[in-house]
Design goal:
Helices cover about 45% and strands about 20% of the residues. It is of the alpha+beta class. α6 crosses α7.
Length: about 400
C-alpha cells in the first residue's frame, strides 16, 4: 500500500494499492542503471507544458508548490514531496508558485537473468518501476542530503564517482522504502524524539543545529528540547556529544588513526578540539586514556585462553602416563645453584687433614737426606685412630 501523506492537512490519502513487501523484494533483486540526475527550476510560465519520461523517474521537490498531472492523475506537491513515474508517462504542470525547484533521477531497473520465476511473475503482474505514486516523507532531510550528494558526484566524470553515485542511490531507495513502510504500518507521524535520535546517530558527523534537527523530524526546536529534557534528562546538544565521544573512543582504541583524522570522522574540526572535548567528558586526554587501557589489559599476546604464562602451560600434556620426572611430581623446580653450608665438623676434619698432610710433607722433606726413613708405626696408628674417631662422630645415627 503506497500512501500520499499531506502534511499541511494532516490526512492520509490512499492513492494506490500495492504490496509493499513485493516492492522491496524486487528492489533487492533489480539491476539498476542510472541514466541522469538533474537539478531543475520550473517557472510559472511553463504551465501546461508536457514532459514525457524517457525512463523510470523520481522527483524530489525542494522548494515551491504545484499541482501536476501524471497520466491524468492529479498530485499536489510541496516541499520535500516525492513522486515516482514509469517510462513513457506524461507530466503536465497545472498550477505552481513563481518558482518550483526539484531534483529528477532517471533510471532503468531490470531483473537479472538468474532471477526466480516467482519474481518474474511479480514483475509482470505489478512492476514497481513503472508505477506512479507520491508521498511526503516524515524525515525528509536524510533523503535530501543523499540526493544532493548524488547530484554533486554525478557531475564528475570518473568511473569511481559514478559507482559512488549508484551506492548513494541504493541508500536513498532504502531510506525512502523505510519511511513508506513506517507510514503503511503506523499511519501516523512517528515520535519526534525517536526520529531525532535516529537522525543524530546517522548524521552525527555533520554540522548540527537545533533548528536543522527539528526541521528533519517535522518538529520545533522547543518541542524537541522539552522531549529530550523530560524523557532522557539531557539536551539535544549533550546527546550529540555522547554519541561523538563514544564513536571517538572506539576509533581511538581500535585504530591507529591520528587525533585529527578521528576528529574529522566524528564531526569536530581538528584534533585539538577533540582532545579538549574528550578530556572534559572522560576526565583524561585521549593519548593517556589509550595508554591506560593498553597498560591495564593483561597478557594481550597470550597464545591461548587456557595459558597462564607466555611459554607453556602450568601442567603440560605428557607423552606417557607413568613418567617420573620431578617437575610432574610436585617437587618443584631444581635451582641452578644451591646455597648449602658445610657442617662445622666436616670443616674441622678438612683442616686437620691439611695440617697432617703438611706435617707429613715436612717430615718427608727433612728426612730425604737420611735415605727417606719410613714413618714409625706408632705415628701411623695415632693418625688412623684420630681420623676414625672424627668420622664416627660425624656419621649420622
Amino acid at each position: 500500500m503506497i500512501i500520499n501523506y499531506n502534511r499541511n492537512k494532516k490526512t492520509l490519502e490512499l492513492i494506490l494499492i500495492m504490496n509493499l513487501k513485493d516492492h522491496m523484494l524486487l528492489w533487492n533483486h533489480a539491476l539498476i542503471e542510472i541514466i541522469d540526475i538533474r537539478h531543475t527550476f520550473q517557472r510559472s510560465g511553463d504551465l501546461n507544458s508536457h514532459y514525457q519520461l524517457p525512463s523510470s523517474a523520481f522527483l524530489l521537490i525542494i522548494n515551491g508548490k504545484a499541482e501536476i498531472l501524471i497520466d491524468e492523475v492529479p498530485h499536489e506537491i510541496s516541499n520535500f514531496h516525492i513522486l515516482h513515474g514509469g517510462k513513457g508517462m506524461n507530466i503536465q504542470f497545472l498550477r505552481m508558485d513563481e518558482l518550483l525547484e526539484y531534483y529528477l533521477i532517471l533510471y532503468k531497473a531490470n531483473l537479472s537473468l538468474a532471477s526466480r520465476n516467482n519474481l518474474k511473475a511479480i514483475m509482470e503482474h505489478n512492476n514497481p518501476f513503472n508505477l506512479q505514486y507520491g508521498f511526503t516523507p516524515t524525515s525528509p532531510l536524510p533523503l535530501f542530503d543523499k540526493m544532493e550528494n548524488m547530484f554533486t558526484d554525478w557531475s564528475k566524470t570518473g568511473i569511481l564517482d559514478r559507482l559512488y553515485v549508484k551506492t548513494l542511490f541504493y541508500q536513498w531507495i532504502y531510506e525512502m522504502l523505510r519511511q513508506l513502510h513506517t507510514l503503511e504500518t503506523q499511519l501516523i507521524q512517528p515520535d519526534p524524539l525517536d526520529q531525532a535520535i535516529r537522525y543524530m546517530q546517522t548524521y552525527y558527523k555533520e554540522t548540527f543545529s537545533l533548528e536543522k534537527l527539528a526541521k528533519a523530524v517535522n518538529s520545533s526546536p522547543r518541542t524537541l528540547s522539552r522531549l529530550f529534557r523530560t524523557q532522557l534528562q539531557t539536551s539535544p546538544a549533550q546527546y550529540l556529544i555522547n554519541i561523538r565521544m563514544e564513536k571517538s573512543k572506539i576509533l581511538l582504541l581500535n585504530t591507529e588513526a591520528s587525533l585529527h583524522d578521528i576528529a574529522i570522522a566524528v564531526g569536530y574540526p581538528d584534533g585539538y578540539y577533540l582532545g579538549k572535548m574528550f578530556k572534559k567528558y572522560y576526565g583524561i586526554s585521549p593519548v593517556r586514556y589509550k595508554n591506560k587501557v593498553i597498560t591495564h589489559s593483561s597478557w594481550r599476546d597470550m597464545p591461548s585462553q587456557g595459558a597462564q604464562i607466555d611459554i607453556a602451560r602450568t601442567q603440560p600434556l605428557r607423552y606417557i602416563d607413568y613418567d617420573n620426572h620431578y617437575q610432574y611430581n610436585g617437587e618443584g623446580e631444581l635451582p641452578m645453584f644451591r646455597n648449602a653450608k658445610p657442617s662445622l665438623l666436616l670443616t674441622l676434619l678438612l683442616c686437620f687433614t691439611i695440617v697432617l698432610s703438611a706435617c707429613s710433607t715436612g717430615t718427608t722433606n727433612s728426612n730425604a737426606s737420611s735415605n727417606r726413613k719410613p714413618t714409625p708405626p706408632q705415628q701411623k696408628q695415632v693418625q688412623g685412630q684420630i681420623q676414625t674417631k672424627l668420622l664416627s662422630k660425624h656419621k649420622p645415627g
